[in-house]
Amino acid sequence: MAVLKLQSLKPRPISELSMKVGSIRCYVSSCRAVLLPRFGGPEVLQLRPDVPVPDLKPNEVLVRARAVSINPLDTRMRSGYGRSIFEPLLPLILGRDVSGEVAAVGASVKSLTVGQEVFGALHPTALRGTYTDYAILTEDELSPKPASLTHVEASAIPFAALTAWRALKSTARITEGQRLLVIGGGGAVGFSAIQIAVAAGCHVTTTCGNQSINRLMAAGAEQAVDYTSEDIESVIKEKFDAVLDTIGVPDTERIGINLLNRGGHYMTLQGEAAALSDRYGLPIGLPAATAVLFKKRIQYKFSYGIEYSWIYMRADSEGLHEIRRLSEAGKLSIPVEKTFSITQVREAHEAKDKKQILGKVVLELD
After folding, report:
1. Which SS3 state, helix, strand or coil, does residue 17 take?
2. Which residues does residue 51 pair with via DSSP β-bridges, in sequence order?
3. Which of 15, 213, 277, 359 could pair with 84 in a Cys bridge, judged by C-beta atoms 3.0 to 4.6 Å apart?
4. CATH number of the domain encompassing residue 274
């Protein structure tokens, strides 16, 4: 289907951009979006009414966003994480997750059609995020929305679940009957990992705060250890085929490594590439991070016989469709604790910064 951008139309920030003109779908040139003009606290976020909507590339999809979730990456980027990469490219639009309807498609898009409800997530390094009325994602970054979920519920899932999926399915390649330890199962990625592993027939142990124990056991974990009141190494007796460490501090890395079987996989979400690049600049930081990762891989392979990996989310069409299938079957969900209007984005970020809301927060767009 052809896509035509009507540059002559005046910006209509809150209106529907998609309309029928014969067999062509047309959309106007601007919409509302939350911009990050500089790094700092929630007060730096600016909701503007007339941010340009770029032309679609052949493999891209314009999504009328209905709900977008707030991920830890959003608040960290706002505060300056990844500064060495993103500062020269400011202003940015934050946001990775989205649920909404297809408003227009690029020329090569075959699997999605205008008007279809979809959900998906952008890569962590995307510059034009989803805090906007009209988000742009590639075809591989989207899937039909689970029919049983609302847009709010669907928007909470893709980025966290795809991160967990990459760790368990692409890296560790878990199989039925294996044992998995999730360090920090109370967060969205850890909770997704538990559900994905249980659905694959794995035995799951997790660490979490006391308030999360019942929820994680209900999701299928066989053991949930309260790290605030119990000594993890004393309580957990068995060894594991894979460890997903969502905390990634030296102590949890040491515990995870010690609890692995030979031939197992230790995976952490806290890779050092962005942190070292921010500290020393890209020319020094990226090679330093590569050297750190290489050293740890050799060290742990030689000393413990295990594989060591830094885990980042990436687009995975097959994974997203499987995540949709699990969600529709009631086997994968991420509870949403509170919703805010997109006009309250500063309040939402402030609440997350102050840890007033520990669970998932979603921004709704009307």
Report:
1. coil
2. 31
3. 277
4. 3.40.50.720
- The answer on 139 and 45 residing in a single domain is yes
- The rounded distance, in Å, linking the Cα atoms of 172 and 166 is 8
**Residue with tokens 């991160």, as numbered in its chain:** 163
Residue 16: inside a domain? no
* Angle 139-18-119 from CA coordinates, rounded to 5°: 35
Which mean pLDDT values do the consecutive 10-residue runs of the chain (366 residues) have? 35 40 52 97 97 95 98 94 90 97 96 97 94 97 96 98 96 97 95 98 95 94 92 91 94 94 94 70 76 87 93 90 96 96 98 92 95
> Are 165 and 103 found together in one domain?
no
Does 48 lie in the same domain as 140?
A: yes
**Same domain? 63 vs 132:** yes
User: 274: exposed, middle or buried (C-beta count within 10 Å: 0-12, 13-18, 19+)?
Assistant: buried
* DSSP one-letter string for 162-226: HHHHIIIIIIS---TT-EEEEESTTSHHHHHHHHHHHHTT-EEEEEE-GGGHHHHHHTT-SEEEE
Any residues with CB less than 8 A from the CB of 80 and at least 6 apart, and which?
Answer: 39, 40, 278
Cβ-based neighbour number of residue 222 at 10 Å: 12
**Preceding amide of 144 cis, omega within 30:** no
d(CA 78, CA 353): 11
C-beta neighbour count of 60 within 10 angstroms: 22
Say yes or no: 283 and 349 in one domain. no
Domain at 352, CATH number: 3.90.180.10
Tokens of 359: 């669970």
The number of domains in the chain is: 2
Q: Which residues pair with 183 in a beta bridge?
A: 207, 245
Q: What Å distances lie between residue 154 and 18, 59, 250, 328, CA to CA?
A: 22, 23, 34, 10
In a domain, 151, yes or no: no
Distance CA 111, CA 304 (A): 45
* 294 and 170 share one domain: yes
Structure tokens that stand for 167 in this block: 């760790």
